[in-house]
Amino acid sequence: MTDLPPNISEPEQIRALVDINLAFARESPTPAQRSEHGKGVADLRATFTVLDHLPEECRVGLFAKPGRFDAIIRFSNSAMQRDDKRDTHGMAVKVLDVPMPSAPRDDAGVPVQDFIFIDSPVFVIGDLRTYIPFDAAFMEAKLNLMGKLRMGLLVLRNLHLLPVLLRLALRRANAPLSVSYWSTTPYRLGPEQVVKYKVMPIGPNRPAPRIRGKDGRRHALKTQLAWGPGLFSFGVILRNTPKTQPIDNPRVDWEEQGARFVPLAEISIPSGQPVEASAEMENDLAFSPGHASEEHYPMGAINRARVAIYAAAQDARRKAAAGRAAPPRSRQRTD
Protein backbone atom coordinates (compact mmCIF):
# COMPACT_ATOMS: atom_id res chain seq x y z
CA MET A 1 0.00 0.00 0.00
CA THR A 2 3.04 2.28 0.06
CA ASP A 3 3.68 2.26 -3.72
CA LEU A 4 0.90 4.53 -4.95
CA PRO A 5 0.42 5.65 -8.55
CA PRO A 6 1.60 9.25 -8.99
CA ASN A 7 -1.79 10.34 -10.34
CA ILE A 8 -4.03 8.56 -7.82
CA SER A 9 -7.23 10.56 -7.30
CA GLU A 10 -8.67 11.63 -3.97
CA PRO A 11 -11.63 9.16 -4.21
CA GLU A 12 -9.13 6.35 -4.90
CA GLN A 13 -7.04 7.39 -1.90
CA ILE A 14 -10.12 7.44 0.31
CA ARG A 15 -11.14 3.99 -0.98
CA ALA A 16 -7.68 2.69 -0.09
CA LEU A 17 -8.02 4.02 3.46
CA VAL A 18 -11.47 2.49 3.82
CA ASP A 19 -10.11 -0.88 2.63
CA ILE A 20 -7.27 -0.70 5.19
CA ASN A 21 -9.72 -0.18 8.03
CA LEU A 22 -12.10 -2.88 6.82
CA ALA A 23 -9.19 -5.33 6.52
CA PHE A 24 -8.29 -4.58 10.12
CA ALA A 25 -11.89 -5.28 11.17
CA ARG A 26 -11.80 -8.67 9.41
CA GLU A 27 -8.45 -9.69 10.88
CA SER A 28 -8.85 -8.28 14.38
CA PRO A 29 -9.55 -10.71 17.24
CA THR A 30 -12.17 -8.16 18.38
CA PRO A 31 -13.99 -7.27 15.12
CA ALA A 32 -16.72 -5.31 16.92
CA GLN A 33 -14.12 -2.89 18.25
CA ARG A 34 -13.34 0.39 16.49
CA SER A 35 -10.27 0.45 14.26
CA GLU A 36 -9.54 3.96 15.57
CA HIS A 37 -9.83 4.79 19.28
CA GLY A 38 -10.71 1.19 20.01
CA LYS A 39 -10.80 1.28 23.79
CA GLY A 40 -13.75 3.10 25.26
CA VAL A 41 -12.82 4.51 28.66
CA ALA A 42 -16.36 5.69 29.44
CA ASP A 43 -19.64 6.59 27.74
CA LEU A 44 -21.39 9.30 29.76
CA ARG A 45 -24.47 11.51 29.81
CA ALA A 46 -23.83 15.26 29.68
CA THR A 47 -25.43 18.61 28.96
CA PHE A 48 -24.26 21.02 26.27
CA THR A 49 -25.21 24.63 27.01
CA VAL A 50 -24.84 27.30 24.31
CA LEU A 51 -23.82 30.57 25.93
CA ASP A 52 -25.61 33.91 25.70
CA HIS A 53 -24.08 37.08 24.20
CA LEU A 54 -21.88 35.32 21.63
CA PRO A 55 -20.04 37.37 19.00
CA GLU A 56 -22.30 38.06 16.03
CA GLU A 57 -20.10 36.11 13.62
CA CYS A 58 -20.42 32.99 15.78
CA ARG A 59 -24.22 32.93 16.04
CA VAL A 60 -24.61 30.21 13.43
CA GLY A 61 -26.31 26.81 13.42
CA LEU A 62 -26.20 25.22 16.85
CA PHE A 63 -24.88 28.49 18.29
CA ALA A 64 -27.53 30.77 16.77
CA LYS A 65 -29.18 31.33 20.15
CA PRO A 66 -28.70 30.21 23.77
CA GLY A 67 -29.96 26.76 24.60
CA ARG A 68 -29.39 23.61 26.60
CA PHE A 69 -29.14 20.16 25.03
CA ASP A 70 -28.64 16.62 26.22
CA ALA A 71 -25.39 15.07 25.02
CA ILE A 72 -23.35 11.87 25.12
CA ILE A 73 -19.59 11.90 25.77
CA ARG A 74 -17.15 9.12 24.88
CA PHE A 75 -13.61 9.14 26.26
CA SER A 76 -11.19 6.75 24.55
CA ASN A 77 -7.64 5.57 23.92
CA SER A 78 -6.33 5.71 20.36
CA ALA A 79 -4.27 2.51 20.21
CA MET A 80 -3.63 1.10 23.67
CA GLN A 81 -5.92 -1.23 25.60
CA ARG A 82 -4.05 -0.45 28.81
CA ASP A 83 -4.81 3.00 30.20
CA ASP A 84 -1.37 3.36 31.81
CA LYS A 85 0.49 3.21 28.48
CA ARG A 86 1.48 6.33 26.56
CA ASP A 87 -0.99 7.05 23.77
CA THR A 88 -3.22 9.63 22.13
CA HIS A 89 -6.57 10.05 23.88
CA GLY A 90 -9.95 11.00 22.48
CA MET A 91 -13.11 12.80 23.50
CA ALA A 92 -16.21 12.63 21.31
CA VAL A 93 -19.37 14.68 21.91
CA LYS A 94 -22.80 13.89 20.46
CA VAL A 95 -25.30 16.73 20.99
CA LEU A 96 -28.89 15.45 20.81
CA ASP A 97 -32.09 16.91 19.39
CA VAL A 98 -30.35 19.86 17.76
CA PRO A 99 -32.54 22.56 16.10
CA MET A 100 -31.02 22.41 12.63
CA PRO A 101 -33.01 21.09 9.63
CA SER A 102 -29.87 19.77 7.89
CA ALA A 103 -28.61 17.83 10.92
CA PRO A 104 -28.35 14.04 10.39
CA ARG A 105 -30.55 11.75 12.46
CA ASP A 106 -29.52 8.80 14.58
CA ASP A 107 -31.19 5.38 14.50
CA ALA A 108 -34.02 6.69 16.72
CA GLY A 109 -34.67 9.61 14.38
CA VAL A 110 -33.13 12.22 16.71
CA PRO A 111 -31.20 15.05 14.96
CA VAL A 112 -27.59 15.08 16.19
CA GLN A 113 -24.36 17.05 15.90
CA ASP A 114 -21.03 15.36 16.64
CA PHE A 115 -17.73 16.95 17.68
CA ILE A 116 -14.58 14.79 17.74
CA PHE A 117 -11.35 15.64 19.57
CA ILE A 118 -7.95 14.32 20.60
CA ASP A 119 -5.63 15.59 23.32
CA SER A 120 -3.33 17.29 20.80
CA PRO A 121 -3.80 20.44 18.70
CA VAL A 122 -2.31 18.73 15.62
CA PHE A 123 -2.86 15.54 13.66
CA VAL A 124 0.07 13.33 12.75
CA ILE A 125 -0.50 13.38 8.97
CA GLY A 126 -1.18 16.35 6.73
CA ASP A 127 -2.27 14.72 3.44
CA LEU A 128 -3.99 11.58 2.18
CA ARG A 129 -1.06 10.25 0.18
CA THR A 130 1.09 10.11 3.33
CA TYR A 131 -1.85 8.93 5.43
CA ILE A 132 -2.32 5.69 3.45
CA PRO A 133 0.97 3.88 4.25
CA PHE A 134 0.96 5.14 7.84
CA ASP A 135 -2.60 3.96 8.42
CA ALA A 136 -1.77 0.57 6.91
CA ALA A 137 1.27 0.19 9.16
CA PHE A 138 -0.64 1.48 12.20
CA MET A 139 -3.41 -1.10 11.74
CA GLU A 140 -0.96 -3.94 11.12
CA ALA A 141 1.04 -2.91 14.19
CA LYS A 142 -2.04 -3.56 16.31
CA LEU A 143 -2.16 -7.13 15.04
CA ASN A 144 1.40 -8.45 14.93
CA LEU A 145 5.11 -7.81 15.44
CA MET A 146 5.77 -7.46 11.71
CA GLY A 147 3.41 -4.52 11.66
CA LYS A 148 5.37 -2.84 14.43
CA LEU A 149 8.58 -3.34 12.44
CA ARG A 150 6.97 -1.91 9.31
CA MET A 151 5.84 1.12 11.26
CA GLY A 152 9.37 1.65 12.56
CA LEU A 153 10.84 1.48 9.05
CA LEU A 154 8.19 3.87 7.75
CA VAL A 155 9.06 6.40 10.43
CA LEU A 156 12.75 6.13 9.56
CA ARG A 157 11.89 6.94 5.93
CA ASN A 158 9.81 9.95 7.04
CA LEU A 159 11.92 11.53 9.77
CA HIS A 160 10.30 14.92 9.17
CA LEU A 161 7.15 13.47 10.79
CA LEU A 162 8.99 12.14 13.84
CA PRO A 163 8.39 15.15 16.16
CA VAL A 164 4.62 15.03 15.66
CA LEU A 165 4.54 11.23 15.84
CA LEU A 166 6.34 11.28 19.16
CA ARG A 167 4.18 14.13 20.41
CA LEU A 168 1.07 12.03 19.78
CA ALA A 169 2.22 8.48 20.49
CA LEU A 170 4.08 9.31 23.70
CA ARG A 171 1.46 11.44 25.40
CA ARG A 172 1.37 10.54 29.07
CA ALA A 173 -1.81 8.84 30.24
CA ASN A 174 -4.10 11.44 31.75
CA ALA A 175 -7.22 11.82 33.85
CA PRO A 176 -9.91 12.60 31.24
CA LEU A 177 -11.34 15.70 32.93
CA SER A 178 -7.95 17.38 33.43
CA VAL A 179 -6.76 18.04 29.87
CA SER A 180 -7.76 20.03 26.79
CA TYR A 181 -8.84 18.44 23.51
CA TRP A 182 -8.76 19.72 19.91
CA SER A 183 -10.51 18.74 16.66
CA THR A 184 -7.20 19.19 14.72
CA THR A 185 -9.21 19.34 11.46
CA PRO A 186 -11.35 22.28 10.22
CA TYR A 187 -15.10 22.79 9.92
CA ARG A 188 -17.49 25.36 8.54
CA LEU A 189 -19.07 27.94 10.79
CA GLY A 190 -21.78 29.07 8.43
CA PRO A 191 -21.11 29.89 4.76
CA GLU A 192 -18.10 32.17 5.24
CA GLN A 193 -16.04 31.12 8.26
CA VAL A 194 -13.70 28.19 8.92
CA VAL A 195 -12.89 27.00 12.45
CA LYS A 196 -11.37 24.24 14.50
CA TYR A 197 -12.95 23.10 17.76
CA LYS A 198 -11.40 23.01 21.20
CA VAL A 199 -12.55 22.07 24.71
CA MET A 200 -10.77 23.06 27.93
CA PRO A 201 -11.43 21.90 31.50
CA ILE A 202 -12.92 24.50 33.84
CA GLY A 203 -14.05 24.43 37.44
CA PRO A 204 -12.15 23.56 40.63
CA ASN A 205 -8.41 23.17 40.08
CA ARG A 206 -7.74 19.84 41.79
CA PRO A 207 -4.65 17.66 41.26
CA ALA A 208 -5.36 15.04 38.61
CA PRO A 209 -5.50 11.46 39.94
CA ARG A 210 -2.56 9.29 38.94
CA ILE A 211 -3.18 6.68 36.26
CA ARG A 212 -2.46 3.16 37.49
CA GLY A 213 -3.26 -0.16 35.88
CA LYS A 214 -5.19 -1.38 32.87
CA ASP A 215 -8.28 0.74 33.54
CA GLY A 216 -6.53 3.60 35.30
CA ARG A 217 -8.12 6.39 33.25
CA ARG A 218 -11.58 5.01 34.03
CA HIS A 219 -10.76 4.84 37.73
CA ALA A 220 -9.40 8.39 37.61
CA LEU A 221 -12.59 9.56 35.92
CA LYS A 222 -14.68 7.93 38.65
CA THR A 223 -12.63 9.79 41.25
CA GLN A 224 -13.01 13.08 39.42
CA LEU A 225 -16.78 12.72 39.07
CA ALA A 226 -17.05 11.80 42.75
CA TRP A 227 -15.57 15.25 43.48
CA GLY A 228 -18.26 16.93 41.38
CA PRO A 229 -19.47 17.41 37.78
CA GLY A 230 -16.93 17.45 34.98
CA LEU A 231 -16.92 20.86 33.31
CA PHE A 232 -15.46 21.96 29.96
CA SER A 233 -15.48 25.17 27.99
CA PHE A 234 -16.29 24.45 24.33
CA GLY A 235 -15.29 26.90 21.63
CA VAL A 236 -13.89 27.54 18.19
CA ILE A 237 -10.46 28.57 16.94
CA LEU A 238 -11.33 31.20 14.35
CA ARG A 239 -9.26 31.12 11.18
CA ASN A 240 -8.04 34.64 10.40
CA THR A 241 -4.98 34.11 8.16
CA PRO A 242 -5.59 31.50 5.43
CA LYS A 243 -1.96 31.55 4.30
CA THR A 244 -0.63 30.30 7.65
CA GLN A 245 -3.77 28.43 8.79
CA PRO A 246 -4.36 25.93 5.96
CA ILE A 247 -7.48 23.83 5.60
CA ASP A 248 -5.69 20.81 4.13
CA ASN A 249 -2.86 20.39 6.62
CA PRO A 250 -4.01 19.44 10.13
CA ARG A 251 -0.36 19.24 11.23
CA VAL A 252 -0.49 23.04 11.63
CA ASP A 253 -1.51 24.43 15.03
CA TRP A 254 -3.69 27.43 14.15
CA GLU A 255 -3.36 29.00 17.59
CA GLU A 256 0.40 29.07 17.19
CA GLN A 257 -0.25 30.93 13.93
CA GLY A 258 -2.33 33.66 15.60
CA ALA A 259 -5.89 32.28 15.47
CA ARG A 260 -7.95 33.12 18.55
CA PHE A 261 -10.13 30.89 20.70
CA VAL A 262 -13.76 31.98 21.24
CA PRO A 263 -15.87 30.17 23.90
CA LEU A 264 -19.33 29.23 22.63
CA ALA A 265 -20.71 26.67 25.06
CA GLU A 266 -20.14 24.72 28.27
CA ILE A 267 -20.23 20.97 28.73
CA SER A 268 -21.27 19.51 32.07
CA ILE A 269 -20.86 15.81 32.87
CA PRO A 270 -22.94 15.08 36.00
CA SER A 271 -21.78 12.99 38.92
CA GLY A 272 -23.75 10.00 40.09
CA GLN A 273 -23.79 8.03 36.83
CA PRO A 274 -22.05 4.76 35.92
CA VAL A 275 -18.52 5.32 34.63
CA GLU A 276 -18.21 2.49 32.16
CA ALA A 277 -18.07 1.60 28.48
CA SER A 278 -20.39 -1.37 28.20
CA ALA A 279 -20.26 -3.54 25.08
CA GLU A 280 -23.87 -2.67 24.31
CA MET A 281 -23.25 1.07 24.53
CA GLU A 282 -20.02 0.84 22.55
CA ASN A 283 -21.79 -1.08 19.78
CA ASP A 284 -24.71 1.35 19.65
CA LEU A 285 -22.67 4.56 19.73
CA ALA A 286 -21.28 5.88 16.46
CA PHE A 287 -19.44 9.18 16.09
CA SER A 288 -18.26 10.81 12.89
CA PRO A 289 -17.10 14.19 11.60
CA GLY A 290 -19.88 13.70 9.04
CA HIS A 291 -22.58 13.70 11.71
CA ALA A 292 -22.93 17.43 11.21
CA SER A 293 -25.34 20.01 9.85
CA GLU A 294 -24.52 22.07 6.77
CA GLU A 295 -23.55 24.98 9.03
CA HIS A 296 -20.86 22.90 10.74
CA TYR A 297 -19.82 20.48 8.00
CA PRO A 298 -16.24 19.11 7.97
CA MET A 299 -13.69 20.53 5.55
CA GLY A 300 -10.47 19.23 4.02
CA ALA A 301 -9.31 15.94 2.51
CA ILE A 302 -8.48 14.29 5.84
CA ASN A 303 -12.02 14.93 7.05
CA ARG A 304 -13.52 13.63 3.82
CA ALA A 305 -11.55 10.43 4.32
CA ARG A 306 -12.57 10.15 7.97
CA VAL A 307 -16.26 10.48 7.07
CA ALA A 308 -15.97 7.53 4.66
CA ILE A 309 -13.80 5.46 7.02
CA TYR A 310 -16.08 5.95 10.01
CA ALA A 311 -19.20 5.03 8.03
CA ALA A 312 -17.66 1.84 6.63
CA ALA A 313 -16.13 0.86 9.98
CA GLN A 314 -19.42 1.44 11.81
CA ASP A 315 -21.23 -0.82 9.34
CA ALA A 316 -18.57 -3.52 9.78
CA ARG A 317 -18.76 -3.32 13.59
CA ARG A 318 -22.52 -3.66 13.59
CA LYS A 319 -22.44 -6.62 11.23
CA ALA A 320 -19.86 -8.30 13.48
CA ALA A 321 -21.98 -7.65 16.57
CA ALA A 322 -25.11 -8.94 14.83
CA GLY A 323 -23.26 -12.07 13.75
CA ARG A 324 -22.26 -12.83 17.32
CA ALA A 325 -25.79 -12.24 18.59
CA ALA A 326 -27.54 -14.39 15.96
CA PRO A 327 -28.46 -17.93 17.08
CA PRO A 328 -26.69 -20.76 15.24
CA ARG A 329 -28.59 -22.12 12.27
CA SER A 330 -29.83 -25.69 12.55
CA ARG A 331 -28.67 -28.01 9.81
CA GLN A 332 -31.34 -29.24 7.44
CA ARG A 333 -31.54 -33.02 7.07
CA THR A 334 -30.95 -34.26 3.57
CA ASP A 335 -31.61 -37.94 4.14
UniProtKB/TrEMBL annotation:
InterPro entries: Catalase_sf
Organism domain of life: Bacteria
Lineage, top ranks: Bacteria, Pseudomonadati, Pseudomonadota, Alphaproteobacteria, Rhodobacterales
Gene3D superfamilies (alphabetical): Catalase core domain (2.40.180.10)
Name the UniProt record assigns to this protein: Catalase
Native source organism of the sequence: Sulfitobacter porphyrae
